[in-house]
């Protein structure tokens, strides 16, 4: 039963990785979404309303929303959990179940750390607005000083990077094998005390 739960949880976490994880909003309007894979690569999908609205997003091909190494580590752990749970189910080895729980716990911790420190898109947007790169080939560079900083802060006050249900579903899928592992360790501790 536990190998099947581990396999289903790992498959669900992998599928949820391809659902929208983050939403980049300006004044409450969703402008860009990122799947778990896009959080790793730094890309995103510009929403149709944002393309048609008054605020135009000029995306350059060299611009990134930041790369998440924690999400990449979580994806590797999820793939390891998937392989290990499949091997456990095929070979009938119960000792691999604990490895599935450990890898799921590792992926869960990586994603919890990611949400605690913030998504890379938030930092990339803040850096891009507050410290814009110097235009290439420009003869004159204008420093707006305090006015530019105040304007940048006002724009940043309207931008939010929020987790979406796909991210929380990934956390829930990883929590199940982690809880099963925790329960197994508690049972071992109780058995040693008896």
From TrEMBL:
TM region positions: 69-90, 102-121, 166-186
Keyword line: Membrane, Transmembrane, Transmembrane helix
Superkingdom per UniProt: Bacteria
Protein name according to UniProt: Uncharacterized protein
Source lineage: Bacteria, Pseudomonadati, Verrucomicrobiota, Verrucomicrobiia, Verrucomicrobiales
């Amino acid at each position: 039963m536990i190998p099947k739960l581990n396999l289903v949880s790992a498959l669900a976490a992998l599928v949820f990785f391809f659902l929208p994880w983050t939403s980049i909003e300006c004044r409450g309007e969703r402008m860009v979404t990122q799947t778990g894979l896009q959080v790793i690569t730094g890309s995103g999908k510009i929403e149709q309303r944002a393309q048609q609205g008054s605020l135009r997003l000029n995306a350059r091909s060299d611009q990134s929303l930041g790369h998440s190494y924690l999400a990449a580590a979580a994806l590797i752990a999820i793939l390891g959990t998937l392989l290990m749970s499949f091997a456990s189910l095929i070979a009938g080895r119960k000792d691999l179940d604990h490895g599935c729980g450990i890898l799921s716990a590792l992926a869960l911790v990586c994603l919890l750390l990611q949400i605690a420190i913030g998504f890379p898109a938030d930092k990339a947007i803040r850096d891009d607005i507050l410290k814009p790169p110097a235009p290439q080939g420009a003869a004159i560079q204008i420093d707006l000083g305090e006015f530019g900083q105040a304007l940048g802060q006002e724009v940043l006050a309207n931008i939010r990077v929020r987790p979406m249900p796909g991210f929380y579903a990934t956390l829930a899928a990883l929590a199940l094998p982690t809880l099963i592992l925790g329960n197994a360790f508690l049972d071992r501790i109780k058995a040693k005390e008896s």
